[in-house]
């Protein structure tokens, strides 16, 4: 709307212009997301996967740890085994449902932790600049020097196996990239005049960071973090595959893939099932992050 | 120097916030200086300094508008940021209504921030894209301790004051506004802390002409209503002439000329001011300027020319200009009607062939 129009509106005899509909930031995000069916579908899919993992004890037709030598490596749809059985005769569907618990935990928890820690470091580095930035970002660069898988293997190897250590490993691996994204976004925002305008009002650094910086840094960081969920799941699977993550007989998608690989010539389809689960989950998270990026852009 | 008819200095109306009396300048800037270090090498040593603002002194009277003009890169914006304490100064003092700013005994920074506000040039980057404009305006009062409700009411009142219907605009985001509307929001935000001195850093430069005129008129109205003092920074000489009472001309981090607006525009003393004024577009096609009065870029402020900084581009350059830097005179002791120029050609006995003869006693 032009100024002239605004002025003519202001001059109009109508006493009270109708108040513009108040729509919060997240309300706007939802408005844009509403018609993005791919993203909505993927969100539904993720919710489904999460629910099935949470309610695994009720959904699983069999005990995921009960093996049966008589029913080893049954094909998909063999009698009561909807997705067949693995090399120890355990029901694949049950193991898949239980395995989702570990795998989703590995996908989401390290990303959340890394977003908190890495995001904080990145914002601090970006806002204060100079020496603080140097100190933080060069430290991150050291981590960047190693390929993420190698770094995860190294940390995991020295910490030992187990779910907690695996999550810790993944968190450490994911902090540097998130930190970098947060730092870049922050240093861009930091040079905008509205930050100077806020400083000119006498606002404290904390207030400026929370009111003006975080809100602008949040969306690139959140979107980037959501792409990392799939990477984290795959990394966790890789660690379990190498024997550095959870140990057998725990049901975990990566571990299942690892143990079933010997049977790939016997039951290729059954062996591929955990991989399909990883693939579908990662793609869903990636597409959701893509959709979120568009929806979180106020100017869209 | 031709003496114009002395007009009484603009004296501000009584203001309860006034501390130093009507004759005390609103702001005195005394020898302010800012060099930005250029670091290089492995050890990050300072290899050079950009002399962005180099020993600038001036004052702004209560209720007047001081225009600051100069080319891009001459230090206008750095000066504004120094006054706002957004950049720390290397040297110099600020005296706000009789009180030293920032020193232990003087006005605390918080007091300065309430008295001094700034409207930024880039209306796009000066508003937080993620905040509805009502919140952008209400932020300052909230920071200074107003409750959220009071701050919002204040923001809405200010929006009406700058000509934006609060009902229509309060919840909008900056990208939903035009350039002129955004600049109105910026003005409202600057006014939210009830300042006495407003620094307008190229506040209308990015607007198209019709909107620019509207905003200038708004500024004039606000100035009367709210008893404001303006420092108006611009490279648009027409606008500066329209709005200013006095004009300060900057070149390469220094003041080259200062004086009442009509004297500067009708009888510029410094060759740089003369060249700047010659660059103005005339309404009359007959008065077309054929040759550019100023050739080339301004010299590098890292390594400013010796003597008079303008000598590299000055048509009247002589040996003395290279050897000795001309002083401006004691700006702080001069009256508001004095017209000072830092040029050897106006200083008697400076050694320049065009200088007036020294007055013999």
Can you give a write-up of this model?
The complex is a heterodimer of chains A (300) and B (361). Chain A is mainly alpha-helical. Chain A contains 12 helices and no strands. Chain A has a domain of 201 residues: MetI-like fold (Orthogonal Bundle). About 3% of the residues of chain A have low confidence. Chain B is α/β, with parallel strands linked by helices and 361 residues long. Chain B has one domain: 3-Layer(aba) Sandwich (Rossmann fold), CATH 3.40.50.300. Chain B has 11 helices and 11 strands. In chain B, strands 6-7-8-3-9-10-11 form a 7-stranded mixed β-sheet, sandwiched between helices. In chain B, strands 2-1-4-5 form a 4-stranded antiparallel β-sheet. The N terminus of chain B is likely disordered. The chains are: A mainly alpha (300), B alpha/beta (361). The interface between A and B is large, with 36 and 49 residues.
User: Count the helices of chain B. How many?
Assistant: 11
Average pLDDT number of chain A: 81
Shape of chain A: elongated
List low-pLDDT spans of chain A.
8-15
Strand residue content of chain A: under 5%
Low-confidence stretches of chain B: 1-6
Provide the spatial order of strands within the biggest beta sheet of chain B. Answer: 6-7-8-3-9-10-11
Please give the domain count of chain B: 1
Helix content of chain A: over 70%
CATH topology term of the domain at 95-295 in chain A: MetI-like fold
End-to-end distance of chain B: 19 Å
Q: Which CATH C-level class of chain B is it?
A: Alpha Beta
CATH class of the domain at 95-295 in chain A: Mainly Alpha
Which chains make the largest contact?
A-B, 36 and 49 residues
Tell me which CATH architecture of the domain at 95-295 in chain A applies here.
Orthogonal Bundle
Q: Main beta sheet of chain A, described?
A: none
Distance between the termini of chain A: 17 Å
The oligomeric state of the chains shown is heterodimer
Structural class of chain A: mainly alpha
Query: What is the CATH third-level topology name of chain B?
Result: Rossmann fold
């Amino acid at each position: 709307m032009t100024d002239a129009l605004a002025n003519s509106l202001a001059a109009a005899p109508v006493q009270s212009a109708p108040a513009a509909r108040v729509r919060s930031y997240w309300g706007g995000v939802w408005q844009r997301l509403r018609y993005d069916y791919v993203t909505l579908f993927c969100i539904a899919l993720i919710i489904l996967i999460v629910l099935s993992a949470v309610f695994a004890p009720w959904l699983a037709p069999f005990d995921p740890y009960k093996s049966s030598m008589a029913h080893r490596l049954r094909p998909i749809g063999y009698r009561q085994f909807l997705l067949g059985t693995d090399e120890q005769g355990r029901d694949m569907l049950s193991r898949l449902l239980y395995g989702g618990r570990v795998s989703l935990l590995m996908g989401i928890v390290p990303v959340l932790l890394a977003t908190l820690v890495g995001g904080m470091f990145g914002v601090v580095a970006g806002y204060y600049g100079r020496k603080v930035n140097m100190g933080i970002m060069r430290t991150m660069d050291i981590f960047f020097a190693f390929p993420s898988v190698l770094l995860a293997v190294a940390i995991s190897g020295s910490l030992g196996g187990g779910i907690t250590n695996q999550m810790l490993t993944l968190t450490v691996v994911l902090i540097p990239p998130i930190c970098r994204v947060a730092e870049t976004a922050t240093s861009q925002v930091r040079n905008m005049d509205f930050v100077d305008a806020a400083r000119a009002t006498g606002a404290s650094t904390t207030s400026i960071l929370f009111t003006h910086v975080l809100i602008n840094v949040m969306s690139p960081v959140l979107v980037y973090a959501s792409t990392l969920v799939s990477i984290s799941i795959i990394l966790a699977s890789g660690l379990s595959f190498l024997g550095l993550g959870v140990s057998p007989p725990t049901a975990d998608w990566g571990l299942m893939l690892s143990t079933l690989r010997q049977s790939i010539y016997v039951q290729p389809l059954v062996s591929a099932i955990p991989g399909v689960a990883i693939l579908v989950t990662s793609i869903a998270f990636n597409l959701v992050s893509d959709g979120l990026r568009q929806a979180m852009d106020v100017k869209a | 120097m031709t003496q114009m008819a002395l007009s009484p200095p603009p004296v501000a109306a009584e203001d309860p916030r006034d501390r130093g009396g009507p004759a005390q300048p609103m702001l005195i800037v005394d020898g302010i200086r800012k060099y930005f270090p250029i670091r290089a090498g492995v050890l990050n040593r300072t290899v050079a300094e950009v002399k962005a603002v180099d020993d600038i002194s001036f004052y702004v009277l209560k209720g007047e508008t001081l225009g600051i003009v100069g080319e891009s890169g001459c230090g206008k914006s750095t000066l504004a940021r120094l006054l706002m304490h957004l950049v720390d100064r290397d040297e110099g003092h600020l005296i706000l209504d009789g009180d030293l700013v920032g020193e232990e005994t003087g006005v605390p920074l918080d007091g300065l921030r309430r008295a001094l506000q700034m409207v930024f040039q880039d209306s796009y980057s000066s508003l937080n894209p993620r905040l509805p404009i009502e919140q952008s305006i209400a932020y300052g009062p909230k920071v200074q301790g107003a409750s959220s409700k009071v701050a919002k009411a204040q923001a809405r009142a200010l929006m009406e004051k700058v000509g934006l219907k609060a009902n229509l605009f309060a919840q909008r985001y900056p990208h939903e506004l035009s350039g002129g509307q955004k600049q109105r929001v910026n003005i409202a935000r600057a006014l939210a802390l009830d300042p006495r001195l407003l620094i307008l850093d190229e506040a209308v430069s990015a607007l198209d002409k019709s909107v620019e005129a509207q905003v200038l008129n708004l500024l004039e109205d606000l100035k009367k209503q709210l008893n404001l003092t303006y420092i108006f920074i611009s490279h648009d000489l027409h606008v500066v002439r329209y709005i200013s009472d006095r004009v300060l001309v900057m070149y390469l981090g220094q003041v080259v000329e200062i004086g009442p607006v009509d004297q500067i525009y009708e009888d510029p003393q410094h060759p740089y001011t003369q060249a700047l004024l010659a660059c103005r577009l005339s309404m009359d096609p007959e008065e077309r300027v054929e040759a550019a009065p100023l050739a080339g870029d301004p010299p590098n402020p890292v390594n400013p020319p010796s003597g008079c900084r303008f000598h590299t581009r000055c048509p009247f350059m002589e040996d003395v200009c290279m050897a000795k830097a001309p002083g401006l005179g004691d700006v702080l002791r001069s009256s508001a009607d004095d017209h000072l120029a830092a040029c050897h050609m106006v200083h008697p006995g400076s050694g320049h062939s065009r200088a007036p003869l020294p007055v013999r006693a």
